[in-house]
Design brief:
Strand content: 5-15%
Distance between the termini: 50 Å
Largest sheet: 4 strands, antiparallel
Strand order of the largest sheet: 1-2-4-3
Shape: globular
Structural class: alpha+beta
Number of strands: 4
Radius of gyration: 19 Å
Number of helices: 4
Order of helices and strands: HHEEHEEH
Mean pLDDT: 86
């Protein structure tokens, strides 16, 4: 699409991938389109994303869904235990400036691998410092960070390192 049409030509259908990535998670119900042809993307991932997905599916031939789910439950349970241990006000190890409340249901059968962590202090610095430390998570203003120890490529050591990074940021 030629640049001169950026301000005048809008897509008839709008979707998640057409929204600007830096405001996509603001959840303000205002469509903020990418400029040019990128604003015409809908909800389907790109072919490169599909190719990497296809490659990752090969892992499923090496294991079972039951084994993967069991690892997921253990990883997320470990993360949940560490968060409660270090950031819950009723924990003897609580020594942080911030209390963290887990919003995700505690029952493994009612959740996947992601935990929604609600902070008692503003997220402004926390999310940025986590990103700078190489932690992949997302935020939901005003006070929630979502973190997911993914069973296909995260380890128990990764979960522990995340909590240590978080402890360093909050102290």
């Amino acid at each position: 699409m030629h640049e001169r049409h950026n301000a005048t030509v809008k897509p008839a259908l709008q979707g998640w991938w057409g929204h600007k990535s830096d405001t996509r998670f603001d959840m303000d119900n205002e469509m903020d389109l990418e400029e040019g042809v990128r604003g015409f993307r809908l909800t389907n991932p790109s072919i490169l994303m599909c190719a990497s997905l296809k490659a990752s599916l090969n892992i499923y031939h090496q294991t079972s869904l039951e084994e993967l789910r069991n690892k997921s439950i253990m990883l997320t349970g470990y993360l949940e235990w560490l968060i409660r241990h270090y950031f819950s006000s009723d924990s003897p190890s609580f020594s942080s400036q911030s209390m963290i409340r887990i919003l995700t249901p505690p029952q493994p059968e009612r959740r996947g691998c992601q935990l929604s962590l609600c902070f008692s202090i503003p997220l402004s610095d926390i999310y940025e410092k986590l990103s700078l430390a190489g932690v992949s998570c997302d935020k939901r203003e005003p006070s929630v960070i979502r973190i997911a120890p993914v069973h296909l490529y995260n380890s128990f050591e990764d979960v522990y390192k995340f909590v240590e990074i978080l402890r360093g940021i909050l102290q």
